[in-house]
Amino acid sequence: MRIKAASDHLVVQAIGGSHVVLLGWDFPSERCDGLLGFALHRTDHAEQEAGWLRGLKTFEETDPGFLPGSSYSTRDHPVQSFLWADYAAKPGRLYTYRVVALKGSPAALQPVAETAVEVRTESPEGGFNDVHFNRGVAASQEYARRFGNRKPSDVGRPAFDWLSRGLFEAMTDFVAACGSGDALLICAYEFHHAPFLAVLKAAVDRGVELTVIYDHRDKDFPGPVNEATAGVAGIADRCIARRSMKSAISHNKFMIRVRAGAPEAVWTGGTNFSEGGIFGQSNVGEVVEDAVIATQYFEYWMLLAEDPANAALKPRVDALSPVPAGKPPVGNSVIFSPRGSLDVLGWYAELAREAEHGLFMTFAFGMNDLFKEVYRRGRAPLRFAVMEKASGPKRTAEAREAEEEQIRRLRFEEANLFAIGSHLTSARFDGWLKEKLTGLNSHVRYIHNKFMLIDPLSDDPIVVGGSANFSVASTRDNDENMLITRGNTRVADIYLGEFMRMYSHHAFREFAQSRREPNPKLKSLRVDDWWTKHFGNTSQSRRRTYFAGT
Which of the listed CATH numbers 3.30.70.890, 1.10.3720.10, 2.60.40.10, 3.40.50.12780 matches domain 2-123+525-548? Predict the structure, then answer.
């Protein structure tokens, strides 16, 4: 849900996702002289709670000297930005937010304008598409505060529940909805999270017809691990090992629920059925309650169940999910791989290139050259990217360095705003706690999502996401699936909130880690004309008007 309000020349737009509310605001530059920031107040109407939201920065003059990791009321230490996000929002709640412009001095802040906006957050379940993001930022100040940077396995269930944020629960709920006589068909790359396999075994015991296709080439991982875990869980006889793809991988992560012989729903997204996929790296799972889409997935699953070689599979996949002409149809549609050409990769790039107002993409394994060209010459005045690393898997150090240099140059483009996965590896930053990763992931530690948002704040947004990495291998070689949703503002709002959560998290940490001085001062708010960079021909100015809807 997105809604806008204005008073006292202060325009505020609230974009309510499921667990995130984005707040963008605009205030005339001629009224900003002496502006020290904005205070944010939230009322939760369900719990009858109200209070000022809290941040991590302070004015040096009025810093109370709390311990590192502490937070501070934005009424006393305001936000020096025109964009803020409430990451503590709960799904399906009605909230009122007040944005208050403050001038005066740090010791005597005076309100000069105020606007209130009422917004209801989305429930992850709703309509034909249910969207479930995990926390995906285990190395964070909140995890350090809550669990003292202990490994999730040492903390136990509270840590895993916090990291899941409903993703694992939604995954198991999809299985729980299958009753005796129903069929549950799964395609998996990593298929070795023992608690989830136990849920599948319980489904078999109550009469669900389970069949799983999992990746098992002649390699060390993940095939042998998949096979061993399925054996321990007692469902090995329900599994089909996908072995014929010698130079590619069966990279899908989807489930199909079939009732009375008719496919009725699909679970898809980029989340592997693994501990690291569910609780560690950033991931999303999406449920589509659409018989037409479920039938297409069923037909694709039936092709893969034959364990065909690529050469035989490609023309059949091309016929099952042809590349659309122009924009995708309104509603849900799908693209499957492997394909006989790279046409669909070019189609994705063309969608991205033609974005009019905003492009938002995640890259878990580097950026394909087609998308480098999009970020070099695309139409959108705001082009965001969140990346696991600046380069993908390269065979030589020279190739890796060359790609990192290409990304570095792209970051100089005025429209481009990139963030690369990072965390605070020490406590040398004033007011900030040291952060540690969970240890659940060794290959992809931060960004595993694979999605693209085209003009998400328009009335006709496009969301593309699934298992494929917008790469040559994901298009031409691997078993992959991508769900495309057009015109669904609810889905776009949820994805956008989560994207900006990841972007803001990693952008700050990447910046902080780049500082070379012994004790970087990152905590202090400014008392100069900090706001000037948010006006004129700057990326901050475009971000201000985009998220405020002005």
Answer: 2.60.40.10
